[in-house]
Design a protein that fits this description.
Bound molecules: flavin-adenine dinucleotide
Number of domains: 1
Structural class: alpha+beta
Number of helices: 13
Helix content: 10-25%
Mean pLDDT: 94
Number of strands: 27
Distance between the termini: 26 Å
Radius of gyration: 23 Å
Length: 533
Amino acid sequence: MGGVQNYDYDFIIIGSGFGGSVSALRLAQKGYKVLVIEKGKWFNAEDFPKSNWNLRRWLWAPLMKFHGFFKVTLFRHVTTLSGVGVGGGSLVYANTLPIPKKTFFESETWAHLADWEKELSSFYQTALKMMGTQRNPVLKTGDLALKQLAEEIGQADQYEPTDVAVYFGEPDVTVADPYHGGEGPDRTGCTFCAGCMVGCRFNAKNSLDKNYLYLAQKQGATIKAETEVYDVLPINGENGKAGYRVKWRSSMKIVKKKGELAAQNIIFAGGALGTIKLLLKLKKKSLPHISDRIGMGIRTNSESLIGITTFDKDTVFSEGVAIGSIVHTGNDSHLEPVRYPAGSGFWRPLMSPLVHGQNAFIRILKVIADYLRHPVDNLRAYFVSDWAKKTQILMFMQTINSTLRFSKGLFGMKTSITKGERPTSFIPEAKILANKYAKIVNGKATALITETLLGIPTTAHILGGATMGKDESEGVIDKNNRVFGYENMFICDGSTLSANPGVNPSLTILALSERAMSKIPEKNGKLKPAMTN
Ligand SMILES: Cc1cc2nc3c(=O)[nH]c(=O)nc-3n(C[C@H](O)[C@H](O)[C@H](O)COP(=O)(O)OP(=O)(O)OC[C@H]3O[C@@H](n4cnc5c(N)ncnc54)[C@H](O)[C@@H]3O)c2cc1C
């Protein structure tokens, strides 16, 4: 990191999600002048919608003037769900922060680079602490039903409440920062309204703007929201030795304001969707030395999302934190109940009976057969009074190492299959468990029509695409997140995950980013005064 040049910033970080936020705080603490550029908006508790029917406040679709924080992207092989805004996916996520099992650390795709379990263990602990992670103290209906299921399948000892980044305290009571030695913001106790995924309106969710980003700003970092980076060029046409010019434009206005800034170092942290899309574009012109492996090794958690709608009058699922418990159903598989708050029925019209089948024709026949055999149940499930209250979503996740590839397409990116089976939601184990769960809660299992009819699975965990390797023939970055082919360039986000964690990935993104930042020296050999882990 050298060169004599006038820079606007020592580091520009593109994206303010999990990787970007860790980078911002740790670099600011090390004395660097840091700018975070974020496409989405700043959100305060009062900006979040009450339910996901308030599309303008919930969805991110700027062309339609929807400036919320939840983005749905359709690809040929997968539908992705992600977050947009200051705090990235933490605004919309379900707060669950598990440490993956051994198989993740020992995966052949990256185990030759480091002893990851050992290397990451202290960074996992730092990240858990920074996020104010606590074991969920209150199990609600959906969690208790999962517990019963765990007992029925002989996995009672594999059931546990989740570790979540939520301030519990007294419901709706505000206290001074309980986490960061008084340097953090006030927190308010969780009301268990199940609203985590439509944005926490009670200031209880420890999203990144309440910890890493908040503290980064206190240390001097600047956050430029509603701004999208569209080009990054090495200064003097070199390999980044002399730094980078970063071109930005406003992301929410029809008439785009544009500008350019110079930075000595650059960190891509736009998430797998943002970073890979940008780097695929830049490889064509501005950054041609990016490894040819860019876009390869795209993974999901091989999720299957199934809705169970209960017919019981008194059963209510829309209480608790969004994901309150987990059962490890096998060595490589996990099941979590996921919930929305009362009134959030956006997904209802998109649900159909849960069927599996090799092709669309068979599945359509099975859906019709299900409607004919169970007309009353289907109608009751479809027309329940409040879908979110009556429906427990089950998220099944697996450690399967099938991968996709992102490449440049006509409209942004397209997917193709590279390794193993294509991702599928037709996982027999998931269906068996869902039907057992449906029996427990006297309900009907349903799935998204994109899955049943089109066979396209949905994932909230899109990962990889800028994976690690020993050199550029094997990966896009080295084991310390440095980009091959360029100096002073890093990637810190979910795109760097080089194996399938098999569980919710954000904690691992935090830990990997903490590790990468720990390798960067302090600016003037001096660390700014104590700001916590
Ligand atoms: C509904 C839902 C529930 C989830 N629940 C959980 C959970 O319980 N636990 C868990 O571990 N994970 C969960 N996830 C997944 C989690 O949100 C992601 O894995 C995580 O956010 C990825 O972090 P990241 O650092 O890769 O980037 P992100 O958090 O995706 O942040 C990237 C940011 O970069 C911005 N950006 C992108 N491109 C640009 C650009 N060119 N210029 C400027 N800004 C840009 C984006 O707007 C975004 O804000 C959930 C996801 C969803 C959608």
